Amino acid sequence: MRNALSALLLTLLLLPNPATADETAIQGVISSQIEAFRADDFVDAFDFASPNIRRQFGTPERFGRMVRQGYPMVHRPETLRFGDLREERGRLWQRVIVTDASGQTHLLDYNMLETDSGWRINGVVLVPSSGVGA
Prior knowledge:
Blueprint: H1 2-14, H2 18-38, H3 42-47, H4 51-57, H5 60-70, H6 72-75, E1 79-88, E2 91-99, E3 105-115, E4 118-127
Antiparallel strand pairs: 1-2, 2-3, 3-4
């Protein structure tokens, strides 16, 4: 019995963790969108947006204008790090820490939506600075 329990626990530890797979996929989507922003490829960046965001902005050009004006730290980040992936009220949020060209650190929460095409970005919220380091 003890050997069977040990074997079961070992098997469970070796199975891929779906949360880790989702986290990897989510971070890949965010990284890919930011790389597209860095290249001013707003058509590609727009592909990583959720259907709702795509309807809201209509065209990659409008979407790109919004990003350049409202989220310059995301358009041209110097550094990018990922914080926690968390669920709040049934929605997944990925914390992203970016440093802009002037050296200022920004915290952003990316709302992620799983679609038939994979994970998509469903909105970004700039987290107010609390005066504490990231």
